[in-house]
Specification:
CATH superfamily of the largest domain: DNAb Helicase, Chain A
Number of strands: 16
Radius of gyration: 31 Å
Number of helices: 24
Structural class: alpha+beta
Distance between the termini: 22 Å
Largest sheet: 5 strands, antiparallel
CATH topology of the largest domain: DNAb Helicase, Chain A
CATH architecture of the largest domain: Orthogonal Bundle
Strand order of the largest sheet: 1-2-3-4-5
Length: 585
């Protein structure tokens, strides 16, 4: 699949690429920069940023840029090629996942159908200002006020009930004597909001009461498909609307839907949980700006402070994190309905930057007119600044705190570090791409590995004698060289990206990736084959020479065994290895 994937097409559909010789370049999508240092190689099927070090194949790009899981990225590439993804245990798909995804889709369809049939539920959405088009776009539905709607429709057999239970759609009650049915529907008499993954598949639901019942919102539990600490409601719809520049994080499903209808198509919501570090990591893989919108009441301020604490480890130069507090009595749903998109987005422009929100909250806890209060603020800020990554943003944040405290920034940092400034390791720029000439330098093991990674098909030209000679080699890295060579001889590959993916989670996989990043070797496979065999022959000669020297040294101090004498004779008469002719093409 990797061999048939065009990485330029995958990356280029998300990042504007410019042709530069045999490769393509762009400003890196994973960090902010003005000069392009992000390169995509169609020959290696590999990308690499010489600024931040991001690298990988088309699979890795989808995982990092689109925040897909590995199986999702595989399935995405397979879908582009019209392929069926094989899974462990034989068969084309994982029966469990197929069953659950299919089930969730059918349940969402049933809920949507029931919404159209129920006047009370439809009227509620109309009164909330939602159009039928918006309801259809988000797949909104209605769970009837009954205990067995799903059980009757989808749970007629034991295996069907098990699937409903796994998907979190029904609840199993404690065994009761005489009870005919031990299960009942989780969602009843609620407006249903399907939660979709990055591919648009329904993985969970959120249900809101209409005019009676508790709790107000009810979410699916954790299931094999759904992990609420990682998912964001509305993210699929936001990404479907075009290129994202920022995300607005709100608290409710209805807020998201109403904002999208008003034209604020970059709104998302957490799923009944506080904003997590995983949420932030996912957001910053997509955009460089995030605005949190909270109610101005006590609960909203508490949620905002928790969001700030989770955001601090992800705060760095090139990223914007801001906080918007809404007028009393309003949430995003009602506010955008009252004042419209333009006025609402104007509020976003005046949202508080993280640094100012931090200072405002800490200042409100201390009396800054006195030294005691300023010292208290500095001490309160210290553990909050600690997780911020080293860099320009951290230094500016310290400077802002120091300004309020009334100390020079350097002195405050020194005091925070116990009286001695903790020096930071200077950033080491990545090495420049190596030329074909410079690639020849370095160890023989490195040379051989680099050529195998760049042109995996060269492994077919290695003779048994050349491979066997590596058995006695003890040079650093030989274990990895033997493993890669054996793997490629038994299961041949054609391009570099296939090697990287095969070794993704194996020992030495990261080393192979670095070799591919830095080695700009000969672009001729035949020449690479000659170089590979030459390196292996030199290694064999070096092993033979080292063994002879060891035996000769031993003979000067003790008597050699018959086996060792025979080995000396074989080593001295052994002919140097001759390389096989490189394969054609």
């Amino acid at each position: 699949m990797i061999a048939r994937t065009d990485i330029v097409e995958v990356v280029g559909s998300r990042v504007p690429l410019t042709k530069a010789g045999r490769e393509y370049k762009a400003c890196c999508p994973f960090h902010t920069e003005k000069t392009a240092s992000f390169w995509v190689s169609p020959e290696k099927q590999f990308y690499h940023c010489f600024g931040c070090g991001a690298h990988g194949t088309a699979l890795r790009f989808l995982m990092d840029y689109d925040h897909m899981t590995f199986p999702e990225a595989v399935e995405d590439l397979a879908a582009r090629l019209g392929l069926t993804v094989p899974h462990e245990g034989g068969g084309a798909t994982d029966p469990r996942d197929t069953t659950l995804y299919d089930l969730m889709g059918r349940v969402a369809g049933l809920y949507a159908q029931r919404l159209a049939q129920d006047l009370r539920a439809s009227r509620y959405l109309t009164e909330r200002g939602l159009s039928p088009e918006t309801a259809q776009r988000f797949g909104l539905g209605y769970a009837p006020d009954a205990w067995n709607t799903l059980l009757t429709r989808f749970g007629t057999g034991e295996s069907d009930r098990h699937a409903l239970l796994q998907a979190g759609l029904i609840i199993e009650r404690e065994r009761v004597a005489g009870a005919v049915e031990r299960h009942y529907d989780r969602f009843r008499d609620r407006i249903m909001f399907p939660i979709r993954d990055s591919r648009g598949r329904v993985i969970a639901f959120g249900g809101r009461v209409i005019d009676r019942g508790e709790p107000k919102y009810l979410n699916s539990p954790e299931t094999p498909l759904f992990h609420k600490g990682r998912e964001l409601y509305g993210l699929y719809e936001s990404r479907s609307g075009g290129t994202l520049k920022r995300l607005l994080v709100v608290e409710g499903y209805m807020d998201v839907v109403r904002l999208h209808q008003a034209g604020v198509t970059y709104a998302v919501a957490t799923l009944g949980t506080a904003t997590t570090t995983e949420h932030l990591k996912r957001i910053f893989r997509l955009v460089r700006e995030v605005v949190f919108a909270f109610d101005g009441d006590r609960a909203g301020r508490g949620a905002a402070w928790r969001a700030l604490q989770h955001a601090l480890p992800e705060a760095r130069e090139g990223r914007e994190i801001r906080f918007l507090f809404l007028p009393e009595g309003h949430d995003p749903d009602t506010l955008v309905g009252e004042e419209g998109r333009d006025a609402f987005e104007q509020r976003l422009e005046s949202a508080l930057p993280l640094s100012e929100y931090l200072v405002r909250e800490l200042s409100g806890q201390s009396d800054l007119a006195h030294a005691d209060g300023r010292a208290r603020l500095a001490e309160a800020a210290r553990p909050l600044i600690a997780p911020v990554p080293p860099g320009v943003y951290r230094e500016l944040l310290i400077a802002r705190i120091a300004e309020v405290v009334g100390l020079p920034a350097a002195r405050l940092a020194e005091l925070w570090h116990g009286g001695a400034t903790a020096p930071e390791s200077p950033a080491v720029p990545p090495p420049p791409p190596r030329t074909a000439r410079s690639a020849g330098r370095g160890g023989l093991v490195r040379q051989a590995l680099a050529r195998l990674v760049r042109f995996p098909a060269t492994a077919a030209a290695v003779t048994d004698a050349e491979r066997d000679a590596l058995t006695r080699c003890e040079e650093p890295g030989t274990d990895l060289l033997r493993a890669v060579l054996d793997d490629l001889r038994s299961q041949p590959l054609q391009i570099s990206a296939q090697v990287i993916e095969r070794w993704r989670d194996r020992p030495g996989g990261e080393h192979l990736t670095r070799l591919l990043e830095r080695e700009a070797m000969l672009e001729d496979p035949a020449a690479a084959t000659v170089e590979l065999q030459a390196a292996l022959r030199k290694l064999a000669a070096r092993v033979r020479e080292q063994r002879l020297k060891a035996l000769e040294a031993k003979s000067r101090t003790s008597r050699l065994s018959d086996e060792e004498l025979k080995e000396i004779q074989e080593l001295t008469t052994e002919k140097p290895l001759q390389g096989a002719k490189p394969p054609r093409g």
